[in-house]
């Protein structure tokens, strides 16, 4: 945990949750150890969606569709979401959740490795949520930037690697070093890219908020 645990507990204690459907989905996901965005990230996304009112959202990393459905709940009613997932076990569960929520005509789930799927996409998305394999963010970035509209928002989750990111390379466990190296590179590029203005926030497991100039 990168932020004081009691602080997070306190902040989240003020959170009144979501719709009954989303609360149930969140509970199920937790029980089945499916990774989903944390409460503080949920709240942050909800505020951002109210501010930006996106018409087209792209998500990388669907899991079972919790964050997809949360975004669809708090974005404008006519908003369309495209979401990408490559884990076969989760895809039918996500589809079923979209159907149960009555959102299947607003959400398009694309199956496959985002590295390939992103290349097939066109058009401009005004809100992109990156929440997949952390070591891949840097590789997705060129396509993400191509797909993001001018003035569009890019939010990336889990960028501080549970705090590992500020440690010395040698203090990081060997198996985490690729993520460490690529995530540091990702943050550097986001902060120095001429097309982006980026803020790195120690929220949840670390979040970046970028806007395309
Ligand atoms: N956004 C979801 C959680 C996503 S967890 C939520 O908050 O509800 C990250 C997901 O990204 C996992 O299900 C994983 O299978 C998927 N993923 C990881 N790398 C991927 C890739 N290269 N292409 C597509 N999906 C990927
Ligand atoms: Mg995440």
Ligands bound, unique: S-adenosyl-L-homocysteine, magnesium ion
Largest sheet, if any? 7 strands, mixed
Tally of individual helices: 8
What's the CATH architecture? 3-Layer(aba) Sandwich
Number of strands: 7
* Termini separation: 32 Å
Give the helix level as a range of percent: 40-55%
CATH topology: Rossmann fold
The oligomeric status of these chains comes to single chain
Unreliable spans are: none
Q: Please, could you describe this protein's structure?
A:
The protein is an alpha/beta fold. The protein has one domain (5-212): 3-Layer(aba) Sandwich (Rossmann fold), CATH 3.40.50. It contains eight helices and seven strands; from the N terminus they run αααβαβαβαβαβαββ. The chain has helices at residues 5-13, 20-31, 39-52, 66-74, 91-100, 114-120, 137-147, 177-192, and strands at residues 56-60, 80-85, 107-111, 125-130, 148-157, 196-201, 207-212. The protein has a seven-stranded mixed sheet, with helices on both faces. Helix 5 links the parallel strand 2 (80-85) and strand 3. It is globular, with a radius of gyration of 17 Å. The chain starts with a helix and ends with a strand. The model has no long low-confidence stretch (mean pLDDT 96). The protein binds S-adenosyl-L-homocysteine and magnesium ion. Residues 35, 37, 131, 157-158 line the site of magnesium ion.
Characteristics:
single chain; 213 residues; alpha/beta; Rossmann fold; 7-stranded mixed sheet; 8 helices; globular; binds S-adenosyl-L-homocysteine; binds magnesium ion
Give the structure's gist in a few sentences.
The protein has 213 residues and is an alpha/beta fold. The protein contains eight helices and seven strands; from the N terminus they run αααβαβαβαβαβαββ.
């Amino acid at each position: 945990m990168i932020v004081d645990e009691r602080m997070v507990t306190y902040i989240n204690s003020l959170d009144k949750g979501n719709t009954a459907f989303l609360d149930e989905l969140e509970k199920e996901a937790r029980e089945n150890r499916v990774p989903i965005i944390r409460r503080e990230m949920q709240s942050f996304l909800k505020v951002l969606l109210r501010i930006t009112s996106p018409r087209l959202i792209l998500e990388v990393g669907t899991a079972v569709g919790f964050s997809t459905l949360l975004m669809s709940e708090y974005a404008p009613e006519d908003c369309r979401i495209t979401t990408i997932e490559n884990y076969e076990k989760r895809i039918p569960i996500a589809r079923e959740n979209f159907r149960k929520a009555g959102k299947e005509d607003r959400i398009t789930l694309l199956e496959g490795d985002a590295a390939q799927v992103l290349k097939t996409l066109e058009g401009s998305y005004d809100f992109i949520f990156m929440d997949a394999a952390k070591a891949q963010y840097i590789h997705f970035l060129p396509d993400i930037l191509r797909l993001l509209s001018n003035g569009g928002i890019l939010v990336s989750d889990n960028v501080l690697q549970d705090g590992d990111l500020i440690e010395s390379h040698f203090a990081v466990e060997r198996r985490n070093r690729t993520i460490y190296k690529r995530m540091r590179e990702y943050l550097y590029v986001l902060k120095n890219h001429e097309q982006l203005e980026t803020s790195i926030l120690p929220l949840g497991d670390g979040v970046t908020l970028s806007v395309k100039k």
